[in-house]
Amino acid sequence: MPFNKPYIIHTALVMSAAVLSACATTQPATSSDTASFGKAIHVNMAAQIVAPTPEQKMDTYIPANRTRRDLALEAYETDTIPPLPESVTSDVNE
Question: Would you say the pTM of this structure is higher than 0.85?
Answer without folding.
Answer: no
